[in-house]
Amino acid sequence: MSDVRLAVLGAGAVGSSVADLAGEYGHDVVALADSSTAAVDPDGVDTTAALSQKADGAGLGSATPEDALATDYDVLVEATPTTLGDAQPGFGHLATALERDRHVVLANKGPVAERYADVRELEVDSAGTVLFEATVGGAIPILSTVSDLGASRVDAVRGVLNGTANFVLSRMAAESVAYEHVLAEAQDLGVAEADPSFDVEGTDAALKCVILANRLVEADAADVDDLRERTTSLEAAEVEGIRGLPADALELAAEDGRTVRLVGEATRDAVRVGPRLVPEHGTLAVSGTRNIVEIESTHAGQLAISGRGAGGDATASAVLSDVGRLS
Fold it and tell me: Which residues neighbour 30 within 8 Å (Cβ) at sequence distance 6 or greater?
């Protein structure tokens, strides 16, 4: 496919960035929708005008999200917020696209964190393909690296996968200040949400590790039914966050040449997320909002990849890389 026609559902930071950058990658946005309004044009939406109109409170356009989903597109970009449980409405959007034999690129973690086998089952009966690089690690090509190595030859993936938690921990270590103070600073800077629970309690990192673990077990599954038996979930993960971690814990770690990071690990057998002691100048001791992963592979040994794990443009680059793979 060249001049790929994109329908973008979700007009938050990621969806807006995808809409802004699509033309640079040679693609046309024929539909752009938020939760209640949409701009639809088979010749290409004026995304700048639509987003400006939304910023002024008038909505993206006169169409509806249902109109966006029904338009003629090649790839659906699902960038609505991640939801837990049934992963709706993202899963429903994905299902509709696959029923129409359209491709889907996910920025929304919900469908592949909560309903991985369901996604693959729908994909079997469709001419469409589902890709989801952007769901794990923002701009960092984690899933594509796992695929390039051969998921069956990857034993584990571990790393720092949440920028908000990492910002808080690295600032606590550098300034010897309390968790509550650093969290307030992160909120003032826009690094942390008003309700930071998803990040500081480890849920976000755990969802990413669940996706990684399911990608690994998929490589060993004989079929979708076998995959369904093997997949893991957020409920099965061991998750501990950093809320209330005392500053003196980092001070004591520093005396021993170590620091604390929120580390997630995905294997075929388990998902674990929690604060861990790591060498102060080691691979996992990245600072600020930076993310890093270590991939343990059978033949290539240990690989480390670091980069921007969040942000509109960074995550949009992963979405558009997936669109390029479909091309």
Answer: 5, 6, 7, 40, 41, 42, 43, 44, 45, 71, 72, 73
